[in-house]
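As a warm-up, study this chain.
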Amino acid sequence: MSLKERLTEDMKTAMKEKESGKTKLSVIRMVRSSIKNVEIDKKRELSEEEVLEVLSREVKKRKDSYEEYMKVGRQDIAEGLREEINFLMVYLPEQMSEDEIRTIVKSVVDEVKPEGPKDMGKIMAKLMPLVKGKADGKLVNQIVKEFIG
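Now compare it with the structure written out below.
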């Protein structure tokens, strides 16, 4: 079952759950809407990988908002976002641990042999296809900076 089909099935389930499925239903509708907008822009159906990219973007948006709301002391809104993030993570592939990311970064750094921070782009270009959808870009960026810093 593709991700889009899974989202549709989960949306139907959330509709049947009435009150208890309201948050889930609104999150699924927002994600399906984002997927549909990208399909309209590209004038074609999205591949499974492209759907994963849209889902990853949605999670990233919510994580960024979560951090901002925590900074300004709005725990009520932040907790709602945390719930949405946890719900969306179910659709993403299992996330890599920090140790796994470090291992991959080390191998790419050894391969590229950077001369300093100016070579960060070269490292990231080789690294991102290996961790796309499986690791948080901010964390990857931070680990790369540690290696070449």
